[in-house]
Automatic annotation (TrEMBL):
Pfam families: FAD_binding_5. InterPro entries: CO_DH_flav_C, CO_DH_flav_C_dom_sf, Diverse_Substr_Oxidored, FAD-bd_PCMH, FAD-bd_PCMH-like_sf, FAD-bd_PCMH_sub1, FAD-bd_PCMH_sub2, Mopterin_DH_FAD-bd. PROSITE patterns: FAD_PCMH (PS51387). The keyword Flavoprotein applies. Keywords: FAD, Flavoprotein, Oxidoreductase. Residues 1-165 form the FAD-binding PCMH-type domain. PANTHER family: XANTHINE DEHYDROGENASE SUBUNIT C-RELATED (PTHR42659:SF2). GO terms for molecular function: FAD binding; oxidoreductase activity. The keyword Flavoprotein applies. This is Putative carbon monoxide dehydrogenase medium chain.
């Protein structure tokens, strides 16, 4: 580790002001950022902690939309239960330490290609709310560890429309509990959405072919004969691109079955 300044604002306004400084970076749960700092892959001169800002925490279910504060930890999302599939997802992120420190805003801002929340946001048609604007999930994820966030922009909340049916299934790497492949499926007023994480070199994506098939018949059998191409899939020591492409089909069927 190296020397840096740590700011602990208690209001969003103070956090935004602190992030206006040179080489300042927001710190939420720190589950990815702290290891990155230890490896000196990032070296900001100032970290601005968001965990002391009460207005960024909490969960509200209003009119069929679940609004979750950006600094809300995974454990609180898991306990809420208003959106069962999302709570189930949160309850299987990492281990108890990660779930009690990591935050939904931090996860979405980091956009790890194997993280779980990006699939939930994309499949749910969520809206990412920042201190400046609201961004539809379809426009938010732009690539590997890349999002539509501007420099210094903070995720203040995430709005999830609660669908009629939904489920998340992941084939996890046992040590990290990240998804080798994770699929979140929803069925609601706006149709069927299928989002895949952990598989693609481009990060989370919607499997539109599966969405079309499931819109006519929301059952695992509707996916027979469908597959995603191996081109562009992640290949590493845990699995080849072909293996991950195969898993997408398998896990999607399991998610549909789990959603009922």
């Amino acid at each position: 580790m190296y020397a840096f300044e740590l700011e602990r604002p208690t209001t969003l306004a103070d956090a935004i002001k602190a992030l206006g400084g040179e080489e300042a970076q927001p710190l939420s749960g720190g589950q990815t950022l702290i290891p990155t700092l230890k490896q000196r892959l990032a070296m900001p001169s100032t970290l601005v902690s968001l965990t002391g800002i009460d207005e960024l925490k909490g969960i509200k279910n209003e009119g069929g939309t679940l609004t979750i504060g950006g600094a809300t930890c995974h454990a609180d999302v898991a306990k809420d239960g208003s959106y069962p599939a999302l709570s189930d997802l949160a309850g299987h992120i990492g281990d108890p330490h990660v779930r009690n420190r990591g935050t939904i805003g931090g996860s979405l801002a980091n956009n790890d290609p194997s993280a779980c929340y990006p699939a939930a946001a994309l499949a749910s048609g969520a809206t990412i709310v920042t201190n400046n604007r609201e961004i539809a999930a379809d426009n938010y994820f732009t690539g590997l560890f890349e999002t539509a966030l501007d420099e210094g922009e903070i995720i203040t909340a995430v709005k999830f429309p609660i669908p009629e049916k939904a489920a998340y299934v992941k084939f996890e790497q046992p040590a990290s509990r990240f998804a080798l492949v994770g699929v979140f499926v929803t069925k609601g007023a706006n149709g069927v959405r299928v989002a895949v994480t952990g598989a693609s070199e481009g990060g989370v994506f919607r499997w539109t072919e599966a969405e079309e098939a499931l819109s006519s018949n929301f059952a695992p059998s509707a996916l027979e004969g469908l597959s995603v191409p191996a081109d562009g899939m992640i290949g590493d020591l845990h699995g080849t691109p072909e293996y991950r492409a195969h898993l997408v089909g398998v896990i999607t069927k399991r998610a549909v079955m789990k959603a009922g």
